[in-house]
Write a structure and sequence with these properties.
With 375 residues, this protein is mainly alpha-helical. It contains 19 helices and no strands. The longest helix is centred in the middle third of the chain and has 24 residues. It is globular.
């Protein structure tokens, strides 16, 4: 049963062990799990074939808190029929009633919570708030699955799409594109139920970055082009500018210099004035971020002006955008190295490495290592 429950979470054993460790630290639980111990608990046998029995009380309590099930049930064979729990019908009624109490005020609270999470994420990183986002995904998904009101379902689905997209980006930043892909798939499904092509386009476009991270550049370019087509008639200028810039980045990764720069020119022409309030809270794009993004593309294709563009963006960047600053400094290091400015590049790379470690950005740590290895 334990292995089934882990699979239901959509995690590998390694991913679950990582989550369990973070859960224990966050909740103050003293229980620990190693890969060897977890495999033995799943098999139910020691190495000599004898039954393993129950784990230490602290470990049992940790597993019970994660899955909200007694340890005896978690360690039962997966094919062993489970007796129906008393109160199953009452539990369903309770969940239905809870979802029926979701009103505009509750939706507004959930949106404010999501905005606060975004603020913490961009400044402190996924290492601080990823578990909170994961929990919030489960809460909203449960409310959605038991809601009978079409209008409420549509609003909850929109929230779920944004939460899953954020969780996908956090997971990608943690260096796990495969798991991020699954979060984006959930985001797209929720976006479809919310009947919002903008959310669908945004989730699809972010999913393309998982393709970039595994070297599937042509597929990423095609995915982003499709996302632009999805949004071209209904999306705001703000989102269309974001999608054009994302497409430009993918083209730059494919060394398609001319098309990449045209895409960024298109993004600049679409970008609303800086004082305009963005209609999409999940987008952080203004002239500074667009310059940062363009500088990334220029560094990728080896354009000499990359240093100037990135330096200007760094001077103007809001320091609350920690993850963005890390990526910008790595891009600036790459551009400086192409000008043989090793001392200045090393300075920015060192600062980026320190910041990436502080927020647990494995994606940027990997980029830093590759940059250091580049002759």
């Amino acid at each position: 049963m334990l292995e089934v429950k882990i699979r239901e979470r959509g995690e590998t054993l390694t991913e679950f062990l990582d989550y369990a460790s973070r859960f224990a630290r966050r909740t103050g639980e003293s229980g620990t799990l190693s890969e060897r111990n977890l495999k033995r608990l799943i098999s139910g046998r020691k190495s000599d074939g004898s039954p393993i029995g129950l784990p230490r009380p602290a470990t049992a309590r940790l597993l019970e808190r994660i899955f909200d099930l007694p340890i005896e049930q978690l360690l039962s064979p997966p094919d062993e029929p489970q007796l129906p729990r008393a109160g199953t019908e009452d539990e369903l009624r309770q969940r239905l009633r809870s979802s029926s109490r979701v009103d505009p005020q509750v939706i507004a609270i959930l949106k404010r919570q999501l905005d606060e999470i975004r603020r913490l994420d961009r400044q402190l990183g996924a290492i601080v708030v990823r578990d909170e986002v994961s929990i919030k995904v489960g809460q909203v998904a449960q409310l959605l699955s038991h809601s009978l009101s079409p209008s409420t379902r549509q609003q909850l689905a929109g929230l779920l799409a944004e939460l899953c997209t954020l969780l996908g980006w956090q997971t990608l930043d943690a260096g796990n594109p495969e798991q991020a892909w699954r979060h984006y798939e959930q985001a797209k499904t929720a976006a479809l139920e919310s009947n919002d092509p903008q959310r669908l386009a945004h989730a699809s476009a972010e999913q393309a970055f998982a393709l970039l991270d595994i070297g599937e550049i042509d597929a990423a370019v095609d995915t982003l082009a499709a996302a632009q087509r999805t949004a071209e008639r209904t999306a705001s200028r703000h989102l269309r500018a974001w999608l054009a810039a994302a497409h430009g980045e993918a083209l730059a990764h494919g060394s398609d210099r001319s098309r990449a720069l045209r895409a960024f020119d298109q993004a600049a022409s679409l970008l609303p004035p800086r004082d305009a309030e963005p209609a999409e809270p999940y987008l952080a794009l203004d002239d500074v971020h667009l310059s940062r993004w363009r500088g990334h593309a220029l560094a990728q294709v080896g354009e000499p002006e990359a240093v100037q563009v990135l330096t200007s963006a760094l001077d103007r960047l809001d320091p609350a955008f920690t993850r963005a600053e890390i990526g910008l400094r790595v891009d600036l290091s790459i551009a400086l190295l192409k000008h043989d400015e090793h001392e200045e590049a090393t300075k920015h790379l060192g600062r980026a490495a320190f910041m990436a470690a502080s927020i647990g950005s494995q994606r940027q740590i990997s980029r830093i290592r590759k940059t250091q290895l580049t002759p």
